[in-house]
Each structure stands twice: as structure tokens, then as C-alpha cells.
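Let us practice reading a record.
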Amino acid sequence: MRSRTATGLLGNAKRYLPVAFAAMLTAGAQLSTDVIADVFRLQPTLILQQIFTDNIRASSSDRDADGITSLTARFNAALTTDHIEAAARVEATYNEVWEANDLDGFAARGDALARVRLYEDILEVDALGRRQQVFLEPSGSAIDFLTGIGQRQETDYAVSPVLRLDVLGLADLAIRATYAQVLFDDPVAGPSVVPLDDIALKELSGRIGTGERASAYEAVVSASYLETDTDFQRRNIVGSLLLNLTDMFTVIGRIGYERITDPSIAP
């Protein structure tokens, strides 16, 4: 386990990057509405749910029936221009449990994603971020199962440039590089808490294929290499050949290789 305190100010800043990104995206989009209203959309939503369960604590031996009233306020925003596609969602949910009041919970979540086209159909950059925050800490696990509200405070983000090329008019090549991080706050107290640690991921993947150049066949080869800062590694390559014998009948042949190295598992 790595010490979370060692991340210092930089680590704390990273945790709130998605929230900051979502705020900047929303502010920039709102400013644009006065000039080009058609590129920005804002959709507020209020959701009221009533849930009934015969096992509020998800227990195998002590089944208690209960009801949950859930209220969610959600705001969706989308921005579309010639070179940028972006979307953000911010929502807050409160769950009122009728009898098991120790499971009452208030949580918020923010998601943001964007695609920037640097060169049309050649180079793009994808980015996404998420922040999930639990403000009231339920002591049980049933709320997570029933409503999807997580009990762990977490931030994750990824940046992924994509390069697409035409290879001598014979095949289409796509190469993607990804860097991502999942950053956990201390898990919310409760039964069966699994210790969690931050993780960073790097992946390089590629795909080359003939596409629709020939109606009788299509050949595709894809490969990827993934590693994390916990020394987990995955290498794979897959080749596929599709033979279109008729308009309704296709034969597919595929061969592949994968090797996984996981230090947490004995050889």
C-alpha cells in the first residue's frame, strides 16, 4: 500500500480535476449561449423514486423489510462545435430510509467528457473525469446495492489521444494511447470494507484492418499493451478474417494470444 499522504497538494488537486473541468465546461458553455445558442444544451431533471425491499441490509440471516424514498436533482450539459464535443452531468441524491435511519445517505456525482478534433479524421483527443462524493456516510451496504450510490469517495480521469491513418489505400490504422488514474479517498466506514488504493494505468493499443474496401472479405489485426503502477501487465494480439460467402452468410476465423502478469496472483 502506498501512503495517500505522500501525494501532498498535487494528489489533492488531482482529485478535484474532474469537478473543475465540469465547472469550466459549464461556465464556458453558458457564455457561448448568448452568441451561438444552438451549440449548447442544458437539461435539468428532478427524479423521485420509491423503492421497497424485503432485505434492506442485504443480510442472509436477518432480513428486514423497508422502504426508501429517493430524490435526485440532475443537470446535463452538452456542447457541440466543429472541433469539440463535450458533455457534463452533475447530480445529487438523497435517500430517506423509513425504518433503518442509519442507512440514510446524501451523495453527489459529477461526470465530464470531451473529444477534441485536432485534425479532421486524423488526430483526436478524448478526455473524461468523474468525482463521486458521499456526504452522509451510511453504515450498511444495502443502499449501494439498491440505488447505485457508491459508498466510496472516488475520483477517476483519463486522457486518450487517437491517431487514424490510411495505409497506402490498403488498410485503416488506428493507434490509441491512454493514461488514466483512479483515486480513492478513505472508504466509508461500514461492514466488509475492502481497503482501496490509488492506481494509475497506461495503455497503448492499435488496430489495422481492410475495412469495407473489399466486399468478399475483411481482415483485422488488433493489439494492446497495458500496465499499472502495481506491476500488473497485459499483452494481447488478435487477428480476424471475415469471409462474406453470401449476403447472409459470413465465416469468421480468429486467432489470438494474451499474456497477463499479476503480482497479486501466484504463478
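A brief commentary: Residues 17-32 form the longest helix (16 residues).
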